[in-house]
Amino acid sequence: MGEGAPSEAMPETGKSSKSQRKKITPAAQESGVALPAPLAAGTSRPPASEPFVAPAASVSPHTPSAPASSGSTSPASPPTTPSLPLTPAMRQYVQFKQLHPGYVLFFRMGDFYEMFWEDAKTVNKVLGVTLTSRSKGPDGEAIPMAGVPFHAVEGYLRRMISAGYKVAICEQMEDPAAAKGVIRREVTRLMTPGTLTDDPLLDGRTDNFLAAVAFNVTKADGYRAGLAWVELSTGAIVATSAMQGQVLDELARLRPAEILVPEHATGQPHEIAKLIEQLGIKAITARPGWQFTAHHSAETVKRQWQVNTVGGFGFAEDDPGVFAIAALLSYLEETQKSNLAHLRAPRRHSVDDHLAIDPASWRSLEIDRTVRSGGSDGTLLSAIDRTRSSMGGRLLRQRLLRPSMDRAEIEQRLDAAGELLQQTILRAELRKELPAIQLARYDTAGRDACAPSRCAPSRA
């Protein structure tokens, strides 16, 4: 029998007609209709009559945790298994939710991506899509349901990610017409705010950083905080270690799309999560504490870049910046279903090489975002940005965010600008050619999608 509703056989076409979808009105929700309550991640299983069978998918046994920040937006918990029998399709949905706690599951059914239980309520709130029900069982329990068309999913994903949610994309891996019984599905993409590489989901003039913070008592400097960040689409990784206050100042400038923080042994996120919240950063993800330890970091970093020591990168073995790099790598290994060969060797960043600006002053200066709207219109950046390419726009933004204190570097920049001011013909030619130049970017399979040698225009 095909995949149907819990209480009736319904073909899985993905096109939910009005007869199949029944709108759940606020009045109905307030009338005491019993809906399945979410359980803690990984605690719910189908009834004994329906044994737990892992879906046909290549998934990691380690699943990312939900965002740690209590004040930030956190994805819905996995749904509990109702007392009523579930059809194969719904059992499949529940199993994928258990394998990916902390993610909103976009479950492909025909021409739609469907969400159920708490996920359906979440997308109704964030995206404004209609909240419906898949069916009504003998006990009068309706399963909340919402869906978006697959051909327009990119726009919905952009809004979910912008709101700080993590999304798991579950695709149909065979033709429904040719499938015998339940359609085979796999989670093909795990999308989080800091791991986007899809051009339609990215702002070309803004870096999309994934960051991690770590802590350690070093032999040279005592207690230090480490910070590392990566731009996954370009493969650039930077790390530093400093006092905790300096790390928070760096985060205020970087404004990462997502930040990883360690968990304590009790399962609670590190206290820095609340301080990061105050910077206005939404996506804060708590990760197991062992991923921020010396043993794990040494093993992970050396394996990634095939080196015997991290000293060649300019770091000591006990540098918390290295711990933060390892936490990033572990997270990327879980969320990216591909190798990470395109990641460049980490570069050490010194906070003392740049002008220190505290977060309050930073907001007041409105360098790249306004206090009132949080947008870029009316900022210093919008007033002076006349760059002709996306990477030029990102470079200008980075230089404004981190004013250099190196006199030689400042004079070098001034000399370059002065030269172009004098060479009017050369400047005009460069401005004409720059829009055609693209930064070396990488697709999700880790392959070089546009090598610099192929992107640079030839000169006659």
Task: List the keywords.
460 residues; alpha/beta; MutS, DNA mismatch repair protein, domain I; Nucleotidyltransferase, domain 5; 6-stranded mixed β-sheet; 12 strands; 30% helix; globular; disordered C terminus
Description:
By secondary structure, this protein is an alpha/beta fold. Among the domains are: 26-191, MutS, DNA mismatch repair protein, domain I; 202-353, Nucleotidyltransferase, domain 5, CATH 3.30.420. Helix content is 30%, strand content 16%. It has 14 helices and 12 strands. Strands 3-4-2-1-5-6 form a 6-stranded mixed sheet, sandwiched between helices. It has a 6-stranded mixed sheet with strand order 11-10-7-8-9-12. A hairpin with a 4-residue loop joins strand 8 (222-231) and strand 9. Helix 7 (294-305) packs across helix 8. The protein is globular, with a radius of gyration of 25 Å. The model is unreliable at 1-79 and 440-460 (pLDDT under 50).
List the helices and strands and how they pair.
Layout: H1 26-30, H2 88-99, E1 104-109, E2 112-116, H3 117-127, E3 132-136, E4 142-149, H4 153-162, E5 167-172, E6 185-191, E7 209-218, E8 222-231, E9 236-242, H5 244-254, E10 258-262, H6 272-277, E11 284-287, H7 294-305, H8 320-335, E12 347-348, H9 359-365, H10 380-384, H11 390-401, H12 407-422, H13 424-433, H14 452-455
CATH topology of the domain at 26-191: MutS, DNA mismatch repair protein, domain I
User: Low-confidence parts lasting 5 or more residues at pLDDT below 50?
Assistant: 1-79, 440-460
Number of strands: 12
Structural class call reads alpha/beta
CATH superfamily of the domain at 26-191: DNA repair protein MutS, domain I
Largest sheet: 6 strands, mixed
CATH class wording of the domain at 26-191 = Alpha Beta
Assign the CATH architecture of the domain at 26-191. Answer: 3-Layer(aba) Sandwich
- What would the average pLDDT be, to the nearest integer? 75
Assembly of the depicted chains:
single chain
β-sheet strand percentage: 15-25%
H/I helix tally: 14
Give the spatial strand order of the biggest sheet.
Answer: 3-4-2-1-5-6
Q: Cα-atom Rg, whole angstroms?
A: 25 Å
Shape: globular
Helix content: 25-40%
Order of helices and strands: HHEEHEEHEEEEEHEHEHHEHHHHHH
What is the terminal-to-terminal distance? Answer: 67 Å
